[in-house]
Amino acid sequence: MDQTPTIxxxxxxxxxxxxxxxxxxxLRAKYIAETFLESARLISEIRGICCYTGSYQGTPVSVxxxxxxxxxxxxxxxxxxxxxxxxxxxxVGSAGGLHPSLxxxxxxxxxxxxxxxxxxxxFGLPGTLAPCADYALIACADWYAGENGIRLRVGPVxxxxxxxYDPAWFKKWTEMGMLAVEMESAALYMNAMEAGKRALALCxxxxxxxxxxxxxxxxxxxxxxxxxxxxxxxxxxxG
Length: 239
Description:
By secondary structure, this protein is α/β, with parallel strands linked by helices. It is built from 7 helices and 9 strands. A 5-stranded mixed barrel has the order 5-8-7-6-9, surrounded by 5 helices.
């Protein structure tokens, strides 16, 4: 039975492409649609969460904001996978750099996402889940970065349930080898794994937790073009 539209999304099944780019920020979703997609049309803006469908070099692509945190990501990605028949979601977000080798605007492809969120408890598993990305999507990102001279790091991040933490929290995760900290990748990967679908989180480093350097709010919205083009090329290759 068709369960669309939902209370969170005004689109009907078939109006959203098989591959969806998912930034956290609705303004970044608008920027991507208006800057990179052809014939983009707004198909939902419930609660200010914009969803657009258009095409990139002939491949249908949708872009929809996820909002902030595991709770918001869990809702939108679940509906995409289960109600809208989406095959792959590529998160295009920001992250705080933990590893001292990182620079502002480096791109991190999230191989696995540790978390302090309790979202995995919803699945009733008899153990601990290790949320991870789809390898084919990571391989495509790595190839594109090499061909285009983009600084890409592939590795683990931590998805924080909160935002404001004691410095000791960041230090402990850094010592465990986390490249960066963000908020949504773990929930996205859990939903993709449960649904038998594919996901990849790409995060541009917007802050360096070890130095205090940071991008401005406007730069967060509009200057992550290398990551966005990478995600669109992955969508085209998969399309």
